[in-house]
Write a structure and sequence with these properties.
Radius of gyration: 19 Å
InterPro entries: BMP_lipoprotein, Peripla_BP_I, PnrA-like
Protein name: BMP family ABC transporter substrate-binding protein
CATH class of the largest domain: Alpha Beta
Family: Belongs to the BMP lipoprotein family.
Pfam families: Bmp
CATH topology of the largest domain: Rossmann fold
Number of helices: 10
Order of helices and strands: HEEEHEHEHEEHEHEHEHEEHEEH
Shape: globular
Largest sheet: 8 strands, mixed
Organism: Nocardiopsis lambiniae
Number of strands: 14
Structural class: alpha/beta
């Protein structure tokens, strides 16, 4: 088996740190106090509600936390984390956001498209609170900012990396929940594979179907599907499955195939024994988006509407942490990346 970003994004991302604070899952609430952090101090109160899987997924939620933690450390904001409960009712999301608003949080950040209806139901009831949602587009509400990403562009690069690394001409994709958002990951990945070699077979599996969102928090099932794809011949597997991706990585180690992570650099947060199996990660800078939103709120100029983060601005990318695996194919990947930025390659958003 074979083994640019913009300055602003790179600088902010590099400033993030990974020290963790405790979460009180029973109360669906965690705490952080920015009073002692950084050179600045702010009276701004920020509440952040995690997506399915919560903090500790090594992926999407952890990236949001890094942005929150940076704001605590550098801006001195008072922040609280709110964890979802396994199998909670849909109404719990709106209740969680309303609780934050009632308790006096100035900014409420909902991490994940699953909060779309909850934000719609809550934001207009609390016009003095600024709401933000990651991965869902909500327009025309004066106190809501949508932070959305070109996931398909990073996934295209992940697909190209898989195609350049497979020895079996057979790769896989595992999605957490089959939704339009995760279809963007699938579409970009399949297109990236085909761009390199359209004869390569791509396995596709999803862990769950809406309204069941457990597919983002089921590592055992992720491991099972990855094992099945490997048994069918896949030797590189990309996941867009949140915490379930930890099971995909376990299967990669057990079976000696390559793993492609998502949202965060999963080479950096993998265990030492797992790192050799992480080819790359298709990242999106949720941490940067969260930090910049809070910074704007501190400065008093946070804007409503839709903010888009793509490859040209460093909002999405692929990682090069595993130099041994990436170096042989990096020149070709960077050429493809530039072609996407220049508009020479149009990346699909639907499979």
């Amino acid at each position: 088996m074979k083994r640019s970003n913009t300055v602003r994004f790179a600088a902010i991302a590099a400033a993030g740190v990974l020290a963790l604070t405790a979460c009180d899952n029973a109360a669906q609430e965690g705490s952080g106090d920015g009073a002692d952090g950084g050179d600045e101090s702010s009276e701004l109160r920020v509440g952040l509600a995690y997506d399915v899987g919560g903090r500790g997924d090594r992926s999407f939620n952890d990236s949001a936390y890094r942005g929150l933690e940076q704001a605590m450390n550098e801006l001195g904001v008072d922040a609280q984390e709110f964890e979802p409960a396994d199998g909670e009712a849909e109404s719990a999301k709106a209740e969680r956001l309303a609780t934050m608003a009632e308790e006096g949080y100035d900014v409420v950040i909902a991490v994940g498209f699953a909060y779309n209806e909850a934000v719609l139901a809550t934001a207009e009831q609390y016009p003095d609170v600024h709401f933000a949602i990651v991965d869902s587009e909500i327009a025309d509400i004066d106190n809501v900012t949508s932070l959305v990403f070109a996931e398909e562009q990073a996934s295209f690069l992940a697909g190209a990396a898989a195609a350049l690394s497979t020895e079996e001409d057979h790769v896989g994709f595992i999605g957490g929940v089959e939704t339009p958002l995760i279809h963007k990951f699938q579409a970009g990945y399949e297109a990236g594979v085909a761009h390199v070699d359209d004869s390569i077979t791509v396995e596709v599996d999803y862990l769950s179907q809406p309204p069941d969102f457990s597919g983002f928090s089921d590592p055992a099932r992720g491991r099972e599907l990855a094992q099945a794809q490997y048994d069918r011949g896949a030797d590189v597997i990309y996941h867009a499955a949140g915490a379930s991706g930890n099971g995909v990585l376990e299967a990669a180690v057990d079976n000696d195939f390559l793993f492609i992570g998502v949202d965060s650099d999963q080479y950096e947060n993998a265990e030492d024994a797992q790192k050799p199996f992480v080819l790359t990660s298709a990242i999106k800078q949720v941490d940067v988006a969260v930090f910049e939103l809070i910074q704007a709120a501190v400065d008093g100029d946070v804007a409503a509407g839709i903010e888009r983060f793509d490859l040209s601005g460093g909002g999405v990318d692929y990682t090069t942490s595993n130099e041994e695996l990436i170096s042989p194919i990096q020149t070709e990947l960077d050429e493809i990346k530039q072609q996407i930025i220049d508009g020479e390659i149009e990346v699909p958003t639907e499979p």
